[in-house]
Specification:
This protein is of the alpha+beta class. It folds into two domains: 247 residues, Glycoside hydrolase, family 65, N-terminal domain (Beta-galactosidase, Chain A, domain 5); 120 residues, no CATH class. The chain contains eight helices and 19 strands. Helix 4 runs antiparallel to helix 5, helix 5 runs antiparallel to helix 7 and helix 7 packs antiparallel against helix 8.
Length: 455
């Protein structure tokens, strides 16, 4: 463990592909890319966009007042890492073996080394370097450096952009339901750029994803390995999430891989200036805490319309829902190190306040607001009422987070504009929904039918 601000493959005991895809994932609060095998992606490979989800009606054997109406599920979008490689003689490299992996917390750069093989065991080496921009949150850079193995001739490289057709049929409740009805449309295609729009039919959300070959082309670009390593460099863009609109071609503005790298370096330098931690005498724990801080900063929505999903942007677990964990466990870190992000995370609650008021009315309360246990869009998405709507403590978690944020920042303007209303509306709900009951000669304020502390 030479560098405590880096995670290497040798630092990990579990080398299963799904685990490594998650651990080495990259994100910037807007979108995340799993560190999947670029040659042989599986059902969990892909791109996750914060706030891009699909809805479907929840089917109950017998429904009741307060039950959530619709599932909300984050969508697994095209894998930006996937690549196709073949020899000049059209022999396809069908297997890819991960040799090494290294994620640098100071820069956000992920370097991975693979050995690619054909069915008759011709091999080449691939070093894949990826970086996700943090300030220009739509941009992702990829460098594929090929060098000779047992094969040292010309290769042809193609960079596709399409939805993953593999589906994970697991019954694990922590894994997201599969979405197989997203609609895609090709909106621009040249030798060096491809743009597709993606629409979620029920949630009425759309976005655009684009690829650009920095040099050469996206299809059958020939590289000669006989004179040493050769590089194929690409940029990808993921647009902001919108309603159904006519999508247009995305502009890359002559950006380069170096531009993305400089963007990321600048952001992470600011993060570590405020957050770097060292624990004397415990290098392993120091590395672990720095990794967690790194993932926290990768995962947090920064636009006031998104939050922190249960798995961040590393995977689709728990359907990409936002929980109370943000306010209690995650937001305090930002409150004390990056209050601008903390404010945006609280803005998400403020911007969904009307939905919380509506949920309170559903429970027969004329005043106040009840925030959801699980959500992406602000509506309750838990299909199990006792572990969802009945968790009334959510309101207290949010009020607590508002108070902690104000005590740390003294941001009176935000408190007056938004925070006070959050506290007032959550207090109104508790006051009207709860009841006083005499216990041992004293009046005690209680909720009836509330989820217990074991949940």
């Amino acid at each position: 463990m030479e560098n405590l601000s880096r995670l290497d493959l040798s630092d990990l005991k579990n080398h299963s592909e799904p685990y490594l895809d998650t651990i080495f994932s990259q994100a910037n609060g807007h979108f995340g890319v799993r560190a999947s095998n670029p040659l042989t992606p599986d059902a969990t490979s892909g791109t996750l966009v914060n706030g891009f989800y699909e809805t479907n009606p929840i089917t109950y054997g017998e429904s009741a007042v307060g039950y959530a109406k619709n599932h909300q599920t984050i969508a697994n979008l095209p894998d930006l890492r996937v690549i196709k490689v073949k020899t000049a003689g059209e022999k396809i490299f069908t297997r890819s073996n991960l040799i090494d992996s290294s994620l640098d917390f100071d820069t956000g750069v992920l370097n991975q080394t693979y050995q690619l093989s054909t069915d008759d065991n011709l091999t080449v080496k691939l070093v894949l370097t990826t970086i996700i921009a943090q300030k220009d949150q739509n941009l992702f850079g990829l460098n594929y450096e090929f060098s000779a193995g047992s094969y040292d001739g010309a290769i042809k490289v193609s960079k596709p952009l399409h939805l993953n057709i593999n589906l994970d049929n697991s019954n694990d409740p922590r894994k997201a339901r599969q979405i197989n009805d997203l609609q895609t449309q090709l909106i621009h295609h040249t030798d060096c750029q491809k743009d597709i729009s993606i629409r979620a039919q029920h949630s009425k959300l759309s976005l655009t994803m684009a690829l650009e070959a920095v040099q050469g082309s996206l299809q059958d670009w020939e590289l000669n390995l006989s004179n040493g390593p050769a590089v194929a460099s690409y940029l990808a863009k993921v647009s902001n999430v919108t309603g159904f609109t006519n999508q247009s071609q995305m502009l890359f503005d002559h950006q380069t891989f170096q531009f993305v790298l400089n963007d990321a370096k600048e952001y992470w330098q600011e993060v570590w200036n405020n957050s770097r931690i060292s624990i004397d005498g415990d290098a392993e724990l120091t590395q672990a805490i720095r990794y967690n801080i790194f993932q926290l900063n990768q995962s947090a929505g920064r636009n006031g319309r998104t939050n922190i999903a249960a798995k961040g942007l590393s995977g689709t677990g728990y359907e990409g829902h936002y929980f109370w964990d943000t306010e209690m466990y995650l937001l305090p870190y930002f409150t004390y190190t990056n209050p601008k992000v903390a404010e945006k995370l609280l803005d998400f609650r403020y911007n969904t306040l009307d939905m919380a008021r509506k949920q309170a009315r559903t429970l027969g309360v004329s005043k106040g607001a009840l925030f959801p246990w699980r959500t992406i869009n602000g509506e309750e998405a838990s299909a199990y009422y006792p572990a969802g709507t009945a968790q009334y403590h959510i309101d207290g978690d949010i009020a607590y987070a508002v108070n902690r944020y104000y005590e740390a920042t003294c941001n009176t303007k935000w408190l007056v504009d938004k925070g006070y209303e959050l506290i007032l509306e959550t207090a109104r709900f508790w006051a009207e929904f709860g009841h006083y009951r005499e216990v041992d000669g004293h009046q005690r304020f209680e909720f009836f039918g509330v989820t217990g502390p074991n949940e």
